[in-house]
């Protein structure tokens, strides 16, 4: 609401409007002054209308022409009265219109006041809610500050733990590198040892294969020798049988010699049976019997000599 509008300001504005040929109204006066409450302007405008008659009479006295003819003065007075009456009627009509406009404005202002009151009530509720929110925010801020202090302590502790963990990680990395180097060294040594062992295994396998081949060759030779000995034994047996048949008439020495030969032949057969299961024993027996063919040949020659004798 505008302030500082005086009665003189309103009267001066109304006079200026009348001088300009306009009817003074509340809105025109407010527009002329650029400010002012409608109620204040209406109140001061009413006093302007109330004093208008007195000002006009004063003005009439000022305009009276001395020594004017009576008819002129009477006519001037009638004109002036008509002017006052017309001005009074126009003023009353304008005042009624202004009052209607004022009532409408007052109603609008009352509605605005009601709206403002509702807004004030809502704003008060908002203010109360804001105050409650402020108190809650203050409490939360205090709690957050406490939590922030705790978090700062935890952050510092975590920073110390992180530094310790980084130090341990560095030590672990150094240990890991040393372990990697040791493992690489052991792997290299193991690889070399594995290669050496593989070479040794291959050499042993080669020697074993060679020994097996040699043993197989020796077994074949032993089998050949055994076949030869068997043939020789068959031949000797046949010769001894022939000798025994033809030597029945020979002296007792020849009979005993034949019996000895037969015993040796039986012993040789037993040895041969053992040699078939034991190649090594056979080879040994064969070696032991290498010297016996000469004796057998000598006995055969003796038996032959006996037959021919």
TrEMBL record:
<keyword id="KW-0238">DNA-binding</keyword>
<dbReference type="InterPro" id="IPR021104">
    <property type="entry name" value="KfrA_DNA-bd_N"/>
</dbReference>
<feature type="coiled-coil region">
    <location>
        <begin position="141"/>
        <end position="168"/>
    </location>
</feature>
<keyword id="KW-0175">Coiled coil</keyword>
<protein>
    <submittedName>
        <fullName>DNA-binding protein</fullName>
    </submittedName>
</protein>
<feature type="coiled-coil region">
    <location>
        <begin position="205"/>
        <end position="239"/>
    </location>
</feature>
<dbReference type="GO" id="GO:0003677">
    <property type="term" value="F:DNA binding"/>
</dbReference>
<feature type="compositionally biased region" description="Basic residues">
    <location>
        <begin position="294"/>
        <end position="309"/>
    </location>
</feature>
<feature type="domain" description="KfrA N-terminal DNA-binding">
    <location>
        <begin position="6"/>
        <end position="126"/>
    </location>
</feature>
<feature type="region of interest" description="Disordered">
    <location>
        <begin position="289"/>
        <end position="309"/>
    </location>
</feature>
<dbReference type="Pfam" id="PF11740">
    <property type="entry name" value="KfrA_N"/>
</dbReference>
């Amino acid at each position: 609401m505008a302030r500082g509008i005086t009665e003189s300001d309103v009267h001066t504005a109304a006079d200026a409007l009348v001088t300009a040929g306009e009817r003074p109204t509340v809105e025109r006066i407010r527009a002329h002054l650029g400010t002012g409450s409608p109620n204040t302007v209406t109140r001061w405008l009413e006093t302007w209308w109330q004093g208008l008659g007195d000002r006009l009479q004063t003005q009439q006295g000022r305009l009276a022409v001395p020594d004017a003819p009576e008819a002129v003065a009477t006519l001037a007075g009638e004109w002036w009265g008509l002017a006052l009456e017309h001005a009074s009627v126009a003023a009353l009509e304008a005042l009624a219109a202004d009052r209607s406009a004022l009532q409408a404005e007052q109603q609008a202002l009352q509605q605005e006041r009601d709206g403002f009151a509702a807004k004030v009530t809502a704003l008060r509720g908002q203010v109360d809610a804001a105050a409650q929110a402020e108190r809650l925010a203050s409490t939360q801020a205090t709690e957050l500050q406490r939590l922030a202090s705790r978090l700062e302590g935890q952050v510092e502790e975590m920073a110390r733990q992180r530094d310790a963990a980084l130090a341990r990680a560095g030590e672990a990395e150094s240990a890991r590198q040393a372990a990697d180097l040791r493992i690489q060294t052991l792997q290299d040594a193991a690889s070399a040892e594995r290669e050496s062992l593989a070479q040794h295994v291959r050499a042993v396998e080669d020697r074993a294969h060679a020994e097996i081949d040699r043993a197989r060759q020796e077994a074949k030779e032993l089998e050949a020798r055994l076949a030869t000995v068997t043939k020789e034994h068959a031949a000797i047996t046949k010769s001894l049988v022939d000798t025994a048949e033809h030597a029945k008439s020979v002296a007792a020495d020849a009979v005993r010699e034949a019996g000895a030969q037969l015993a040796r032949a039986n012993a040789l057969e037993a040895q041969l049976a053992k040699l078939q299961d034991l190649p090594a024993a056979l080879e040994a027996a064969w070696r032991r019997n290498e010297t016996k063919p000469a004796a057998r040949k000598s006995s055969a020659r003796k038996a032959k000599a006996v037959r021919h004798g």
